[in-house]
Amino acid sequence: MANRLLFCTVEVLLSAVVLWFPVKTSGLHPPSGVNVEAVHGSDFLIISWNYQRDVPYYRILFANPPDEAGPTPVYCLPDNTTCSYCVSNLNTPDVSCITLNSHYTASVSIKLNYEQLVSVRVEACKDLIPEECLQRSEWTNYTIPPGAPSPVRNVHARPLSSKTVEVSWTAPNQTRGTIVLYSVLYKKENDQEMKRVFRNAGKGILTRLSAKTTYKIWVTASTSNREGQRSTLTTVETYADECESSPCKNNGKCHLYGGSYKCLCEEHWEGPRCEIPEGFYMKAKKCLDAGREGNSSLYSNVSLEFCVKECRAISSCKSFEYGLGYNSSGTFVNTLHIKSLGLCKLQHASVSHQPLNDCPYDYYEKKPPVSSSSDVFLSKALFTGHLALMTSVTAILSLSPLALV
């Protein structure tokens, strides 16, 4: 019985030693202090962690994007405080970790993008086979910060009046993250530089400018982290007065009125700039719901006057949309805009049938006809007023000179 008990005790002790021995002799512990940092924009990722004595190799695991490197020797600082590993961006040609630091002889290349979430884990290894990587860190998540966008393209400026200028542009070729705003920088000769900020736009309007003055203009794009380079310089000169820009449409005559202007419209046109055909309501940059495309008729390369006449002539036409400068495929063409031609869409529906949505065209709707009872009422009112006027005149003329005295 005693021998049996002794045997069991020895067996338990041997089992404990067997289980304890690999852990004790391995000398490995999970890497700690894991940190990830982007260098030179998104060209490189440097993964670093606290130095571990007697750990010859490490393996780097990536969850996003899925990839791995090692087991491999890594570079550790001479003071034995930190070890690190370099990752180069596969999307950026001609970049190499060894050019960043000659000690990064072992590295890997993966696809990296600005504002990308990267998940990294570091494993400590006894040997060059993955099965010997017995201790691992927790996953470390890192978002590559946005960079500085490349220069804004195709910057154009045109005067709208003596005090306003419209500036338009195209987004940079390399946004290097999400563009959150555009800055328009402008100045006149021998004056300080001014700035206007526009968010989520491809154009903006500068106001409170000086008449008949030349302005220098640049545009920059910015991410949440950095402002990009300036665009190529463009210049523009404001008009001398409000009428020089020909604000009155459809042959309306412009007259200066204080610091502004007034338009004298020709027959069949109305509105502040003679832009609205008589008998129609108008909403700028609005269209009917696109779900009713089958109830419309399209005309391309036509004038606004043509569209108005067609809708007036067709009794079933309740409204129309007109896009100045747009062709049949809905693309803006500057030559059409210069020729005052565009896309006309006659509709058999109005806002009473479906809502209006934002769009690049203008919406025109026929005004309801005046009812016959209203016509009769108006005619009676005019007749009554005319009769009263004539009665008064007759009474005055009938007075004798004595009575007038």
From TrEMBL:
Residues 274-368 form the Apple domain. InterPro entries: EGF (IPR000742), FN3_dom (IPR003961), FN3_sf (IPR036116), Ig-like_fold (IPR013783), Pan_app (IPR003609), RTP_Phos/Ushers (IPR050713). Residues 1-27 form the signal peptide. Pfam families: EGF, fn3. Residues 239-275 form the EGF-like domain. The lineage of its organism: Eukaryota, Metazoa, Cnidaria, Anthozoa, Hexacorallia. Disulfide bonds join C265-C274. Residues 151-241 form the Fibronectin type-III domain. This is Fibronectin type-III domain-containing protein. The keyword Ligase does not apply. Gene3D superfamilies: Immunoglobulins, Laminin. Keywords: Disulfide bond, EGF-like domain, Signal. It comes from Porites evermanni.
